[in-house]
Every structure is written in C-alpha cells, then in structure tokens.
Fold these 4 entries.
Entry 1:
Amino acid sequence: MSAPSQPAQRGISGLMNSTIGAKIAMALTGFVLVGFVVQHMVFNLQLFAGPEALNAYAYNLKGLLGGNFVWMGRAFLLACIVLHIMAAMRLSARNRAARPNRYAAGLKTQTTSYAAKFMLGTGIVTLLFLVYHILHFTGGVIEPDNFHILDSEGRHDVWRMVVTSFKNPVVVVTYVVANIALAFHLSHSVTSMFATLGLQSGSYRPLIAKIGPAVATIVLLGNIAMAVSVIAGLIHI
Ligand code: HEM
C-alpha cells in the first residue's frame, strides 16, 4: 500500500521546498539583481560627465510616474533580495542535510562546499555593503552634511554628494573591498544562473563559462573607477 501523499504546497513556499524550485527562484531573482547592478553602474558613470548630467538623471528618475516608479522599483528589488536569500538558505540547508558525514566526503563534494561557502561569504559582504550604501547615499544617515546639498537648480546634488564622499580614503577602501567581494560573487553566480536556466548546453557552453567573469570584471572596473578617480583627483569639485 502506498503512503498517503502530502498535500501539494503552492506558491512561494512550495517553490522553495523543492531543490529545483529554490534554484530557479535563485536564478530568476539573481537575474533581476545583476540587471540592476549593471544598469546602476552604467548610469552612475555619468559622474564623469559632471553635476548636470548625474543630477538631472537622478531628478528625472525620481519624477517618473509621479514619483511612484522609484518606490515600485524599490519594492520589487527588496522582494528579489529577500527571495534570493531565502533560496540560498534553503539550498545550503539541503546541501548540509544531504552530506551527513562531511569527513567522509569526496573531493567533488569538498569543491562544491568551498564554492558554496565562498558564495555565502561574498553574498554576506555584499548585503552588509548594501545596508551601508543605502544609509549613505539614499538615506543620508551616514555623512548627512554631504547628503543635504542642492545644486543651482534646486535638485538633490547627487554628484557633489558622491564626489565629496569619495574624497575620504576610508569610504574608498570600503567601496573597493565591497566591490571586489561583489565581483567574486557575480563571477561564479552569473555563470551558474545560466546553467540553472538551461542555457549552458552545446555550443553555448564556452560562452556561458566566460559571461560570469566578464560581467563581474565590467561591474568591478566601472564602480572602482568612480571611487579611485575622485581620490586620485581626476574628478574634483
Ligand atoms: C561606485 C559605486 C557606486 C556608486 C557611485 C553608487 C551610487 C549610488 C547613489 C548616488 C545612490 C542614491 C541614488 C539617489 O537616491 O539619488 C545609490 C543607491 C543605490 N545603490 Fe548604489 N552606487 C554604487 C554601487 C552600488 C552597488 C555595487 C550596489 C549593489 C550591490 C548598489 C546598489 C544600490 C541600491 C540598491 C540603491 C538604492 C536605490 C534607491 O534609491 O532606491 N550601488 N547608489
């Protein structure tokens, strides 16, 4: 006689309870998050174009859909971050449960476990950086004097806020270290994201293997260039 079947779980909790569901949730939310990080870096590069470009961009973005666009984007990003972390916790709990005797584990399992620990470590550094970064540039809680500056048009002077902040070597080191951790995280995760979504087959395989390191390097160089250019005096007020 067969055991009574458990009622099927629906929604997010049902999705997270299967390994493949958690992997797909991780890949889809990761796709949104890496998309945000890339576009954020590209638009922030307007720091090199001067105050008018960056301040006008920030002002126009905040005015989209009567100011609602930014809040909808924030809610969507927050939901993706929460789901991404939930999926990571679920997968790492499942991996631990599937490996009852870690000392008897073979080389492959050890390699997988190093990758998982590495992703966890770089993910935690990125999350801590994000909290600091939002308190810094979005909330104005860190360095409030830099935050409450308006430009000649009466707009939030985002350019001056960022440039003044990056004159501080401690801030620059924090951004460089956090962006290195983010780059390691992206390098591994963007490639595995494509593998999870089934795109790492056949002739695409060599391309997909390179896409993670390529995206990570572009984001790292773009973000670090801004902080380093200010402290090196290439961008100044
Ligand atoms: C040199 C690198 C970076 C610069 C110059 C920068 C700049 C900024 C600025 C100026 C804001 C505030 C925008 C505003 O309120 O007008 C902001 C917000 C934000 N940044 Fe960055 N950022 C950098 C790197 C990053 C990285 C690496 C991440 C992700 C890991 C990130 C994620 C965010 C998020 C989530 C927000 C909040 C967006 C919102 O206001 O809703 N940033 N950033």
Note: The chain is about 75% helix and 0% strand.
Entry 2:
Amino acid sequence: MSRKKASVNGNFKDIVNTVKFLTERKRFIDSAAPVLPTRTDDFGVNKVARSLHPKEQKLVIDRIEEHSDIAKSYYLRSEAAPLACFKAGQYLTFRLEIGSAVVTRSYSIASSPASALNGEYQITVKRIANGFVSDHILDNWAVGDKVTAYAPEGNLTYNPLRDAETIVAIAGGSGITPFISLARAIAQGDENCSLTLLYGCRTPEEILFRSELDSLACESEKIKVVYVLSHSDEEGYEKGFIGADIIKKYAPEGDYSIFACGPEGLYKHLGSELPKLGKEKKFIRFEVFSSGKKADEQKDFSITVIDRGNESVIKASSSETVLCAFERAGIEVPARCHTGECGFCRSKLVSGKVFIPEGEDKRRIADMQFNFIHPCCCYPESDLVVRIN
Ligand code: FES
C-alpha cells in the first residue's frame, strides 16, 4: 500500500474512532441520573478525581528485588489512601532530600496498571555512572522506608484514537520499564494493542526482566520480543544498535507506532535512523528522562535566584542544568518530567545566557519572547539572574 493511501486509511480510522467515542460519551451522559450534588464533598466523581490525581502520595517500600548487581526493583505500597491509577507507560516523580539538596526524579512504572488497584507500584532503578539520584536510591532505600511521589504522569501510553494498533517499542537498558508494564497490561487484557519490543543492551547479562519477557512472548501472540546486543555477538540475538534496518525487519506490514525509551545515546542514534522509515511524526514518541548532565568542558558560574522577592546567590556549572544547580543548593522548584515538556519548572530568565540542546526547547512561543525558561533543560553559559515561583 502506498504511504499516501496508508495515511488516508489512518485518517479515516481516526474519524471512525472519534465518532464512536462521541456516540458512546453521549449515550453515557444521557443515561446518567439528572441529580445535581448539593455539596461538593458529596459528589462521588470529585472523590474519584482526588484519588486519581492526588497532589502527592506517601508510599512505603514494601520489598526490594535485585537484578544481578546492576539494578533493583522497588515495590511501593500506599501508607493510607488508595494508589492513584495509571496507564502502562506512565511515570512517577519522586521528591527526595539528599543532604542539603531537594531533588525530583521520574521513574517509569514497571508494574501493570492492575497492580495499582491491588495497592502496589513497582519501579526499577539502574546504576548509571555518577548518577546523583539513582545511586542514592540504590545505596540508601531500604524496606520500610517512606518516600514521597506525585501522581503518575506521562504520554508514552497507548491511545487507540492516536496510535496504530501495533506499537514497535524501542528500549535501551533500563528504558525497558514502561514496556514491561505495557506487555503485562496486554497479557492481562487491559490494553488492546500488539507489542513488538526491540530491546537493546550491551550484553545478555544486562537484559532486565529476561525470563518474564520470554514467557509473556510465549503466552501472548500479541507480544514479540527481540534482543539486540551492541557489545556481544551471540546466536539468537540481533547485533549492533537498533536502527531502521532492524525496525523494518521486525515491524509488521502496514501501520505501526514507534515508542522509545532509553539513554541519551539511543535517541541520538534514532534521530538519524527514524527519518529513513518515512513515518509521520504523530506515530513516533520518545520518553526522555534527562540526568541533567552535559558532557562538555566545564565552566563555573553563579545564579542569583529571586524567590518571592528574596534573593540568594548559588553556584552553577555549564555541565549541569539550571534545575540541577537549584537542587544542589536546596532550592525547591516544582518539577516533574525533566524533559522540558510539562512546564512545571517554568521560570523567568531576568538576565544572562543559557544553552538549550536541540530538540529540548519545548517552550511556548510567548514564553520564548518574554524570556521564560524551563530550567530542567537549560545549561548556564554565563552568570544568570532567574526568578522562580
Ligand atoms: S520539569 Fe517538566 S518542564 Fe521542567
């Protein structure tokens, strides 16, 4: 089928799905009881909304599972309220105090959405070179510890109105976590898509969830798993880096969406490989959790932080984001995605110059004009004055 024809079919499918959704919604609204609540507190939907979107969740580490010596899974339960529900592919943002620093970091939820209904989240943390927060978690979190997380968020989720019925998921290292969640959800009948998982690691020993992925692929014809090794040449594995050739070899005929999650190197490689597939942008989505570091010559600067009229001066480095400088100084700025996407950390750059890597500037045009920045993806290039909150 030509690309043009495939796209027309895709648009037609979108229209049919939208009409179905609107009809179903109208039927639901028409059949609802015509009773208005007398007090906001009495309105059940508000209670459901509060449990689905809590401001923050107090969690307890219930158990810890080691994945060789490179990663650990943490199973978290709620201290009191029910856990907020999530869709496979979403992440939790944790608020941590490390020494005098106050930091937020996001980790994809590895468990299936059904697990939240049973009161449990699973996250998996892998050790990375000089990983400020990941190393702290791996070395310090213990069973019984209490941790704070915000409600699940993120868009690396299957949406039948937007996505093709097959997801080609490209995972690198611990970037497997949103896709093990999706595979579990498909196997449990909670997601209606098919999954072709291309999972890249350096060696077979670094593959996380190996036995579970193999069983899920055996049990469900909707799940296919291909392992790709970059530093090892062994039978039964693809060799090299995941690029257009490997995607074409395993992707289904016809439409498919591409989801990717992994380290920075994976995205750089995909940046030059994916255009070879000629896919529309709407069929490609990345989840990027920045470590806040830039491998570059390091220069020291200062940032004058204005917080509700109070001024303080902190140290900053050209190799770390402005948000990292805030965190190290113990200055709390709301932050979730660390990718420039959510806008939670939006601040005003009063003076100075910052560097924003290509593709990471997701500000609105008005914000660019009036010099607002997302500190999570800006690196100082001079002394700065920044107004937060
Ligand atoms: S934390 Fe989301 S834009 Fe900065």
Note: Residues 3-31 form the longest helix (29 residues).
Entry 3:
Amino acid sequence: MKVTFVVPAIGKKPGQRYIGTWKMEPLTVAALQALTPPDVETELFDDRLELIDYDTATDLVALPLETYTARRAYAIAARFRARGVRVVMGGYHATLAPDETAEHADAVVVGNAESVWATLLADAASGRLRRRYEGGVCAAPPPPDKRIFAGKRYLPVGLVETGRGCGHVCEFCAIAGFYRHRYHPRPVDDIAADLERSPHRYQFLVDDNLMADREHLTRLADRIAPLGKKWAGQGTLDLARDPALLARLKRSGCELILIGFESLEDASLRQMRKPWNAVLGERSALVRRIHDAGIGIYATFVFGYDGDTAATFERTLEFAEEARFFTAAFNHLLPFPGTPLYDRLAAEGRLLHDKWWLAEGYSYGQVAFRPATMSAEELASRCRDARKRFAAPRNLGRRGLASLRRSAPREWPLFWAMNTRLGEEVDEKMNVPLAANLDAWPK
Ligand code: SF4
C-alpha cells in the first residue's frame, strides 16, 4: 500500500511563485510517518513549496487541514477522488467542522490522528475504511520521523512538540475547544530526545501554552539546558511573575517567547475572556523583566472587539514601539468555526459569510464579520498599516539595537533575518485569494 501526504497551501496571487520563503516543517506528517508500518510506502507533497502530482500512483491521500486551507484541501481531494483514490482528512478544521469535512473526504479523523493512525491504515489496506475515526487526545506523540522531509526546503529550525492544549478559555481560540480547556504535557525525556536528534541550532517548541504547567516547564528547562540548543516557544505574560523561572528558561536556551497580549483595552480583554491579561500588573514592567532576563518577545495583538476604535491602534502601536519587541503581529479577529466567538457573532447576525473559509472571493486579510465601531474594510486596512509601521526602518533600527543588548553576538543575525522577511511579507500575504493559483507555476 502507498500513502500520499499532501499539506495544502492557502493560495497565491496570480504571478506569485509562493508566499514568503520560510515554511515550517509539517510536524504532524512526521509524527504519522513514524507510526506508519515499514511495508507501507509514503510520499509527501507540500503544496506551499511544490506542485502536486495528481497522477501519482497511490492508494490513500492524507490531508491535514486548517480553516484557512480547507477550501484548497477540498479541491485537492476532489481531484484524487475523481480517479478513485480514497482521501482521509484530519487536523484542527476537520475536528472543529467534521460534518463539513466529511462531505469532501472518504474518512475524517476527529482529534489527534496519532491515536488511530495504525487502525486507519489497516482498515484502508483491507478495504474497510470507516467514515469517521475519533482520535481523542494523544498526550505522548511518538518521536517524529523527519526523513520524509528529505529534499524539501524548510526553514532550518527544528520543531519539537512539548505539550498540547491550554486551560484558558479565550473566546476566539480554536485550540482551547479542541482540547476541552485542558493542557497535556509531553514527557520531558521524549522532548529532550527529539532535541538531541535535531540537526538544527534553533528549535521552536511547539506548544499552545508553555506556561500552562509551570512544574513541567521547570523540569523541561533543567533537562534541556545541557543540550546547548537555542529555542523559541509560546507562553503567557505571567511568565514575568517568576524571575527564577525566567532565569532557568534563559539558561535552557530560550531566546524568544511568543506572548498573546491581544489587547490593551480592559473591555476587550473581558469580552474575549482573557481579563487575567489585564490583572497581571503593569504590562511594561512585566515586559521589562522578560527583556532584562535576556529573552526577546514576539508580541501578538488582535483588533476588532466592540470597544476597539482607531485610538486603540495608536495606543497599541505606541506600546509595542516603546517596548522594543523582537517582533509583533497585528491581527484582526477571525471567527473560527467551533469557537464561542463564531457562535456569538452568528447569534448577533454579524457574520458576513456563514463560512468565510469557503466563500467565493474571500481572501487572506479580509474581515469576515461586522465590527462594532468601524467597517470591515477599515479594520483590515488598519491592521495592515500597523504591521507596516512596526516594520518601518526607524522602528526596525530601534528594536534591533534593543535586541542586540539582550542577546549574544552570535544570535544577532536571527533578529535581522526574521524581521526583514516579516516586513516584506506583509503585502505579499494581503489579499491572497484562498485556494487560488496553486496548480501551476507562473509563466
Ligand atoms: S491562552 Fe492562548 S492557547 Fe490558551 S485559550 Fe487563550 S489564546 Fe488559546
């Protein structure tokens, strides 16, 4: 039997070869590869980097999909199914919208696919593929088999999974619902073994919230410190309340923490059910503590809550510029299916499309709901302008100097490489039509 993994892309504008130059390894594919029996042949097409061979000889196509890539995944599935190849789909979108996904696939995996992959392959081999597999939560994923990435041009950063889920209940978050508001830490020795195997100096610790289990994070930091790796990961601002933990993280190789500040408006934080972000204390002081520990911050902000106005953008930008963050993202709110946000906006009659991810003409960067204080177009364009202003040379220079003071000289190129590319990508990504222009290279 042969399985073809296909990682779908979002889309491209006419004439674009691909969006951006940096693509992360699709870690899920490597995890499933590790669980695939040796007598099953596999191959991978990454739609973000290469053209898909729709005529490849195969028995089963496996497509992991997110909401942004759902429409493209359905189009890919239709091409394979037209020639009689069975298609299985999984991932966040398949879990949050399983009935919709089932309309386009022979089988759907709800939850983590690792738990049911071996059964699914055996069913496929014996011609008894079921319509739905319930994967539940797999808290101890296997060591990924990354040999399937050979020859693909991925970012030279090792992805290592450290935990799944998060105990918080942020209204817009798809992850929280997926894991039913629980955190599932991965065994520390498994993480260390993956890090030791990684050929890369820089690692991204894949975790929805590293701070969800402080004791686990402490043990992890102590365990990986001797490995001499440099890493980035995703946490929350309350990290700054624990100076001893901050020092431990730095010793373990932490260079950058992604923190969802989301909003500076108390009303917006309350509405998104993240009020603890406001009560943690004075933000600037907490940010300073993280910076003083020698750790940079990738700050993320979200706009479009009912109390957000034009002044909110100005205030947020001033805060981000003053803080000299390593980098920052300025996103508009997006109602993902299966989230409380989606249900609320639907109940209030404010969704511009029932399913924006399938809507004809919908493109990346468009706002899919009616904001309370400005038009959808104004919200989208203010987010784009915030990204451009933050990436402008004057800001870049000031942030770069601050970053140099936090890190050893060997780490300095990381700041410039990452920020230069992120700045260039702002307009490359805006208005990319979903599921478009992917089946041929531009002439
Ligand atoms: S803290 Fe982050 S991962 Fe957790 S629910 Fe909120 S947005 Fe989701």
Note: Residues 166, 168, 170, 173, 175-176, 208-209, 236, 260 surround iron/sulfur cluster (CB under 6 Å).
Entry 4:
Amino acid sequence: MHNALLNVELLDAASEPYRNAGRFAYYFARGKLRADPVYRAILELGLLRGRTRVLDLGCGQGLLAAWLRAAEHCYARGIWPWGWPSAPRTLSTRGIELMARDVERARRALGSAAEVAHADIRSASFGAVDAVVILDVLHYLDPQAQLEVLRRVRAALPTRGLLLLRVGDAGAGLRFRYGQWSDKLVMLLRGHSMVTQYCRSTVQWRTLLKECGFDSEAKPMSQGTPFANVLLIAHAT
Ligand SMILES: C[S@@+](CC[C@H](N)C(=O)[O-])C[C@H]1O[C@@H](n2cnc3c(N)ncnc32)[C@H](O)[C@@H]1O
C-alpha cells in the first residue's frame, strides 16, 4: 500500500478514540495530527524508539499518547509506511495538563491507556522517565519558570535521556509573529484567557538547554504550515 494511505490508517487509528470525547475533540485531533509535522517526524525519524517511559508536559488532550498507541497498533498489524523505522514501544505514557477540559477529553479518549494528571508543570512531580516531550508549551512560562522546569526535566532523565522540545523561533521574523498570533487565537478558542508569551530565538533556547544540562540540535518543524517552529532534540549530558 502507498505510504500516503498508510498515513491515513494511522491518522484514523489515532483520532478514532476521540469520538468518545465529543465532536470538538475528534475534529481537533484529526486536524492537528494531520497538519502538524511533528507527529509524523517523531515516527519517521524514530525519535522515541527505545524510550519506554514517556512524559508529555502540557499534553493538551493527549494527542501524543494517542498517536504512539496508534503507531504501535498499526505497526503490529503490518500497516506501516515503507522506509520508516519500527514504531516505538512505550510502556507508559504520562501527561500533565493544566486545563481541566483538556484533561477530561484526554481521559475519555485514552481511558486506562495513558495517565493524564490535572496539574501545573511548574510544581507537579515528574518522576523518573526515559523521554520528556514538550510541544508548544514552554513559552507560556516566565523565564525563571522555564529554567526551573528544564532543570527538573533534566533531573527526571538518565544521562543520554531525551528531551523533545518544540518552540517557535523568535528570531524568524514575520513567520514567527504569525505563529504567535495564531497561537493566541487557538488558546482563546480553547477557553484560555489572553496569555503572555515568553519567547526566545532558537539560539537562546539552545543556550538555556545547555545551562540546564542538555546538548541539543535544532530541526525546522513547521513544514506545510506558515509558522517558524523548531524541534529541539536534546540529550541529557
Ligand atoms: C498549544 S497547547 C499544546 C498542547 C500539546 N502539547 C499539543 O501539542 O497538542 C499548550 C498546552 O500547554 C498547557 N499548559 C500551559 N501552561 C501549563 C502549565 N503551567 N502546566 C501544565 N500545562 C500547561 C495548556 O493548557 C495547553 O493545553
């Protein structure tokens, strides 16, 4: 089967559980998983392979957990794009999310397949994990809180443990500002009040990661979108 069709199978398998969480949750999941290149990249580049305990900070409605579960399911059935590495086999996926409504949607969709805590990442315990994923969240925290969260992420990981941090590149001009405004709009639609954003350029994010005990590389992560997002792939030193 053609890779595009296999991707649709994956998208269907990851979105289907959100039918239990209402129309908004279902269509939001389909739209985001289809349009956001980060989900595909995580599988296509094999970024989470060999990482069995995954922590998703600011997990929203739990899309990453649904995506990983769908990947495992599709891979086991032989429905897998040609040329991609094998699907990651996660033993536990834990999410932490501030918005009660998102936590509820995640729990309804994922059931016992993932744990979703209703808590603030500035104070919640991270436990001990193999990989931490933070997608489009850290800019909501002020600079001191960003530093403290990243230090605690480092403490939760072993040496060579993985952090996937997606951020907007504040050094990228108009595309970055477009992303900032669209982010504000989406947050308003999802029921947040107007939030302040604390952004940095890619270079500044990487400097902060270094300060917190990570070596990082940056990959552009907004293909097919008008934004200036970057995925920082960071390893604990
Ligand atoms: C743009 S959404 C991204 C959601 C998810 N990471 C994804 O990519 O689908 C940002 C999420 O971070 C959550 N968030 C922001 N500040 C937080 C905090 N201090 N603790 C926990 N979650 C937080 C928001 O409620 C929101 O769900």
Note: The mean pLDDT is 93.
